[in-house]
Amino acid sequence: MSNNRTSGLRGGRVAGVGAAATIAVGLFSAGAADADTFVPLPDGEKQGPGVTITRTGEHAVISPSLAANGAGRVAWVSGNATADVTVTPEGEEGPNNGPAGGPGTNNSSTHGVSQLNTGYIVGCQVAIGDDAIAAGLSGGIDLEGGSLGGSIGLELGPGDVKFVQIEHKDIPEPGVYSVEYQDYEIQIQGCAGYAQARAYTVVEIIGDHYSKTTLYGAPFSIG
């Protein structure tokens, strides 16, 4: 069994510095009303075929946008998503990764290797509950990739919902795989109403018994 861990910072703060910075933000918030809001979020676990997904240490710091226009805000999110994978074909199998080598059947989208994928669902004037998630899985929600600097900017109008991918990691063999991110910046512009976000972690296992297991985090307000 292998132990694979990736920072997920992608050019942002190193883990030790990021942790110290998060603590500093919390202390600053205590002395400055309405500056930043620290949001602790619960751990979670989900079991699926051949995998156990856990999310630990998740929290967010909500800040007003520097644009100060009433329609922008910033969320600094942190957490650790881990997949304990017990069953997966070893190595890559090319694009035909469905059951019995079929051509990408059963909604397989990893293009030849099992995969851990984590990020956030972000919406404007939308409660990120089961209905919003179902809409996204049926193709109604856009996917946005983050930048190398550990941040992403979103333009969201009323009713808009987007998936923000923070990081993904290939799973070429059974083992424990982890994506840790610290103070990843999500900037939201154009949303004059309330905004909400929710973490997601997806593990896809390719092969004859293809499966997709998803763990969602608790929804939280971004103001």
Key structural traits:
223 residues, mainly beta, Immunoglobulin-like, 7-stranded mixed β-sheet
Descriptive overview:
The protein is mainly beta. It has one domain: Porin MspA (Ig-like beta-sandwich domain) (Immunoglobulin-like, Sandwich). Helices cover 13% and strands 48% of the residues. The protein has two helices and 13 strands, in the order E-H-E-E-E-E-E-H-E-E-E-E-E-E-E. The strands form two sheets. Strands 1, 2, 3, 4, 5, 8 and 10 form a seven-stranded mixed β-sheet that branches. It is elongated and about 45 Å long.
Query: Based on DSSP secondary structure assignment, what is the total number of beta strands?
Result: 13
Q: Any idea what the CATH architecture is?
A: Sandwich
Q: What are the low-pLDDT stretches, counting only 5+ consecutive residues below 50?
A: 7-33, 94-99, 103-107, 137-141
| Main beta-sheet strand count, sense and barrel state | 7 strands, mixed
CATH topology: Immunoglobulin-like
The CATH superfamily is: Porin MspA (Ig-like beta-sandwich domain)
Derived structural class: mainly beta
Q: Which whole number gives the mean pLDDT?
A: 75
